[in-house]
DNA sequence: TGAGTTTTAGATCGAGCGATCTAAAATAAA
DNA sequence: TTTATTTTAGATCGCTCGATCTAAAACTCA
């Protein structure tokens, strides 16, 4: 039978995530990727196909690890608190991001999705998942009285998604706690009052 | 004396803006640029220097034409109305953007600014200009009673900047009126009430 | 008109790109 | 041990990259 693979596919995929995350799709070469992943070019093409396929795998892995994990962890938390912890996490991540890599999903939304239908659908789907999470939180919060009912839950969820994207973008150019927390403060004031 | 330039520098610069705007920095080659600008490679290097310098010129031109113009047009408008018209313009622009180019400033904030100190300063400066415009609007609105005083003007301005970035990002993947207007609606509800 | 200067057009530079190929090394089942 | 299969390592494919060079063409001023 066949010789088994000499590397851990998940481990090298995570190296690829790091590359794409910190430098983007176009700016990273397949040679850079192979070197960083610790495998040879042919092994890379064998295991992952071409550069675009590898990016797809990297994005899927990132989303599962980062977004999926967060949504799952906060699924059981009381809604108002879940939202607060969500944003607190995002802000801490953004401020601790010395390389200013931002979020691979947001980066993909700007660099890859606009020119590539498959990636646009993938990114749009994840964004809708996040929006749906926000909507569940807002609806539950409105039901238990912790979140205002004076605006439709759907619009509040949209606002939460928009603000999330805004924080992710601004943090890459102005990683400033006062700015990021200043964005969130009026949002929670709105959720709380009225 | 010298032979005069055979092309209009501003006109070809605007062609370069279109290229960088729709495809990004890395994905556009100097050959693409020269062809689209209708000049030869040597003329491009003569007139604008290298690719990075041309991008800088293109970004500056875009900012002056697009951002600067908008802030100037709305400077004399009553504050609450200025904010409303600002967002209405942004949403219409985003929905009419068939190529999903988004905003060159936001695109630069994600593709170029994180890895290039000069561009980071340029982008951060423009973002601060926009934030300052929002702050002037909010402060004036709080003074004339058209905007709530129950949150600090500085935080409301930060929220307005964050939401603007969020709209610009989301529109490139999900150019959907319901989504974009749904983000803005609770923001104005917050500005109006309380 | 002629001297002087700049812009043109097109070829070309070395480097790096994504992708593929060959052949040797490695492994598991027969 | 043999056979079959896969992964390796490294060279290499044709192409495009950003950038430069060479001359010819174009133009202004003396």
Model description:
The structure is a homodimer of 194-residue chains. Chain A is mainly alpha-helical and 194 residues long. Chain A has two domains: 1-60, Orthogonal Bundle (Arc Repressor Mutant, subunit A), CATH 1.10.10; 74-192, Tetracycline Repressor, domain 2 (Orthogonal Bundle). Chain A is 74% helix and 0% strand. Chain A contains nine helices and no strands. Chain A has helices at 9-23, 30-37, 41-48, 51-73, 79-95, 104-111, 117-144, 153-173, 177-192. In chain A, helix 1 (9-23) crosses helix 4, helix 5 (79-95) packs parallel to helix 8 (153-173) and helix 5 (79-95) runs antiparallel to helix 9. The model of chain A has no long low-confidence stretch (mean pLDDT 94). At the A-B interface, helix 6, helix 7, helix 8 and helix 9 of A face helix 6, helix 7, helix 8 and helix 9 of B. Chain A binds a DNA duplex (30 and 30 nucleotides) through helix 3.
